[in-house]
Amino acid sequence: MKLSETRISDFKMLNKAPYKIPPPEPLTALILSGLSEIEKTYGPVFTLRFIRYALQFEAQKIGKKTYEDIKTLDQLAEYLVSKSYKYPTPYCSILYAQYKTENELQGQTGVGTRVGHIGAIRNMSETLNTIKRNVDVDSILSEISQILIDLNLSPPEWGYKRNGDGSVDLIFRKCYFLDACVLAYDEKVLKRPGDGSACSFAFAVAEHFKLITGYEWDYSLLEFNYPHCIARCYML
């Protein structure tokens, strides 16, 4: 989809966050806490590379190389937050490092199996002519928006547009992850297993839809940094 095809007025904007960016400590800790399973999958090689890339990203932002003896994710979180007075979105360092490290190691993890399973589920649904399932999109997204605001995690501005096929387009403006995503995109590591580009917020929304509805959901990134991003969430 090209920018000329997008009409911002088509989107219903959700409650605006009362802050431009979240405070550094809770989000940094939250993202790192979700990496424990990845550590189990890859082993120590993941942690070593992840820390190195996160520190390299941080060094670019604060204009100073880091020589601290950081060996664990907890030490990394403490260090990044301590430098937030120089770079107020340290969680971008973590997100970039995750994209970069997973992109390098994904061939060792069997991610193709998961992609194959998603495709098989989609094909099976089409073959069985699955009936249309009613989903209260407005209620679910309103709930997600309030949860993110309460947890100080909300994008500054975001909204959605319902499509006739049951999918939902999400628009994110002034996203505080953009530093990480732009560099990852330029380095061609903002990639998902199989095809397409990653979006942490779209992934989170798709997972929430999955939990609420009991059905599998996925997403595709349609527009990136225009200066907004648009992703489509859809039921498999």
Strand content: 5-15%
Shape: globular
Q: How many domains is the backbone divided into?
A: 2
Taking the sheet with the most strands, its summary is:
5 strands, antiparallel
Question: Structural class of the helices, strands and pairings?
Answer: alpha+beta
Number of strands: 5
Bin the helical content: 40-55%
User: Can you give the mean pLDDT?
Assistant: 82
* H-E order: EHHHHHHHEEHHEE
The strand line-up of the biggest sheet is 1-2-3-5-4
Give the low-pLDDT segments.
108-132
Tally of alpha and pi helices: 9
User: How big is the Rg?
Assistant: 18 Å
C-alpha end-to-end distance: 21 Å
Labels describing this entry:
236 residues; alpha+beta; 2 domains; five-stranded antiparallel β-sheet; 9 helices
What does this structure look like?
By secondary structure, the protein is α+β, with helices and mostly antiparallel strands. The two termini are 21 Å apart. It folds into two domains: 3-20 and 112-235, no CATH class; 24-108, no CATH class. β2 and β3 (168-173) form a beta hairpin. It contains nine helices and five strands, in the order βαααααααββααββ. A five-stranded antiparallel beta sheet has the order 1-2-3-5-4, with helices on one face.
